[in-house]
Here is the input.
Amino acid sequence: MANPSILILAGDGIGPEVMAEVKKIISWYGDKRGLVFDVSEDLVGGAAYDVHGKPLADETMAKAQEVDAVLLGAVGGPKYDNLDFSVKPERGLLRLRKEMDLFSNLRPAQCFDALADFSSLKKDVVAGLDIMIVRELTSGVYFGTPRGIFEENGERVGINTQRYTESEIERVARSAFELAKRRGNKVCSMEKANVMESGILWREVVQRIHDEEYPEVELSHMYADNGAMQLVRWPKQFDVIVTDNLFGDILSDCAAMLTGSLGMLPSASLGAPMENGRPKAMYEPVHGSAPDIAGQGKANPIACILSFAMALRYSFDQGDEASRLEKAIEKVLAEGVRTADLMGPEGGTAVSTVEMGAKIIEALDASL
Ligand code: IPM
Ligand code: MG
Here is the structure.
């Protein structure tokens, strides 16, 4: 059988630096665990724009459709801020999500013990936190039409459309219930059914999928604004949160920051199963391209490495190896090894991006 394939799209800013460490981890799995991947690389975002005049070449899009998993670094930077909307770096990312039909975006918010002091919330509110936001990723107001800036009665009007079909809600609801079964068995669905018809439909459909297919999972519904408040008040009340594209964008940033460092959080974007049974998939850190620190060896590679751990778990059915990698990272953090973003008043051993990668590999070696 052919080796599983990975397409690396490192992108812009700190993307290439953090991805360089992921590549070492991928090689480690080949050398030490016999898990050999066929790795290829290509451009996305501003890096692709510089070469092709657009943020994702058609050939790159075609490759992404072929591989077992895409690993993406980050896109964007000040150099590209004034580009036309249609060729901005973000459009490359949105095209990948849409054309691969990656409707289910898994964004864990997990608080590492060693970092609980970093949260802006009290330690007991966040210590041990482990929640998963499932964000619908291919529809809603991000993609609905009509959209645009139009002339109306002598002035301009900006329009975006929130739109969800029943089947779009059904599939992301199933994905959330399936995950919950393997975790704390609890789903909270968030929308604004008090003001939006799309929210009313969302609530009805999630409830129906629950009643018909997952009655054993505990389901609750919350208005998204209350959800934001509850996330900050007592986040441990949640296990899996399922929500739409825009609310998910906002709530996941909020949840991420609860854990103290955006530099720590991975994500998986999953679609329907391919012929080989694996889901179409793209993995990326939640953080952005951080142009202010790019090229200085300061970036924290952990979110990107944890994204590869998610690939091991969700694309390659290697849950034990994913746990090995996650434990190696916990160990390194517990030893006080810190990239700049993790350096607090209690101090620690300051390391660069490359040194953090090397420490994690040492911990992986020690796990054998
Ligand atoms: C995210 C980002 C993206 C989004 C941007 C970069 C297009 O904020 O993945 O959360 O809004 O989805
Ligand atoms: Mg976002």
Notes: The longest helix spans residues 15-33. The pocket of magnesium ion (ligand 2) is lined by residues 249, 253 (CB under 6 Å). The chain has two domains: 1-106+267-368, 130-257. The CA atoms of residues 103 and 138 lie 5 Å apart.
